[in-house]
Amino acid sequence: xxxxxxxxxxxxxxxxxxxxxxxxxxxxxxxxxxxxxxxxxxxxxxxxxxxxxxxxxxxxxxxxxxxxxxxxxxxxxxxxxxxxxxxxxxxxxxxxxxxxxxxxxxxxxxxxxxxxxxxxxxxxxxxxxxxxxxxxxxxxxxxxxxxxxxxxxxxxxxxxxxxxxxxxxxxxxxxxxxxxxxxxxxxxxxxxxxxxxxxxxxxxxxxxxxxxxxxxxxxxxxxxxxxxxxxxxxxxxxxxxxxxxxxxxxxxxxxxxxxxxxxxxxxxxxxxxxxxxxxxxxxxxxxxxxxxxxxxxxxxxxxxxxxxxxxxxxxxxxxxxxxxxxxxxxxxxxxxxxxxxxxxx
Length: 345
Fold this sequence. Notes:
The radius of gyration is 23 Å and the shape is globular. The strands form 5 sheets. Strands 5, 6, 8, 9, 11, 16, 17, 18, 20, 21 and 22 form an 11-stranded antiparallel β-sheet that branches. It has a 7-stranded antiparallel β-sheet with strand order 7-10-19-12-13-14-15, with no helix packed on it. The protein has a two-stranded antiparallel sheet with strand order 1-2. The chain has helices at 24-34, 51-69, 75-94, and strands spanning 2-5, 8-11, 17-18, 73-74, 99-100, 103-109, 124-129, 133-139, 142-148, 154-166, 172-182, 188-196, 205-210, 213-220, 223-229, 236-243, 248-253, 256-263, 272-282, 286-306, 313-323, 326-327, 330-335, 340-343. It folds into 2 domains: 2-97, AF1782-like (Substrate Binding Domain Of Dnak, Chain:A, Domain 2), CATH 1.20.1270.90; 103-343, Jelly Rolls (Sandwich). The protein starts with a strand and ends with a strand. The chain has 3 helices and 24 strands. The protein is mostly beta strands.
């Protein structure tokens, strides 16, 4: 009889007594490396994991540690410890709070309860090498994720998996938001590359700094376009609104639409599983990310509106928050900067 836990091959040949912990220490070390050694935002608020679920995982790890270092154990003890670890880790992941004020998100990460100096739990580091680094940083009382590379060509690629099925039909839209800041010395960074159900990139938004000429680049089908210049070392807020039926997406930078109804990079993208961002083979890199959100929203109406004083005249899409595609009722809490109305439902 044999088994696996998170890809680990485990020798479980039946016996009454076994020796040297059945590699239980290997299982403990792997789980510690992807949980305890990472930054996990703990608490009751939106985007946080349960403190009690985290404490239960620590207790299960400590118990497994005692068994693995205490000499021989029975097969039953090994199986119980292994199952307890798997259940505790799954419970921690499932404890993530993604609902607030009647709105459910597929991703919500503002890094405010994260631990500085660590990589973030829940965001997969798919490739970090040659001087690449990903860590939580605090600056001027704001906490965020910083990706960086050294003086040689480096890699720090991250994948943020979405929770639940991220798709939209009819008047629904997939809405993705994030803030980002790009350092002068870097030549290129991917900011948003969502993967579809086949693993292909559905869309792309990126920073490019060729010849110290910085532009936001957005893919329209197979063509890459410079859509808006940007300034170094400046925080910008981005919003992507994807129409999955029409296979198009629009990109907002602050209050401005910088790419409107661009065709998907890959046709046939009906479900989004997560998005890739980071630095892929460039030196002298530093790019910061914050306030990442993904949700499904429903377009209620589009109209020309007079914005409040100081913001001028702009086209505004009114979108209500939803829970699993259920349209909510607008309560007139307007967000003119983001170009839509949030709702309580």
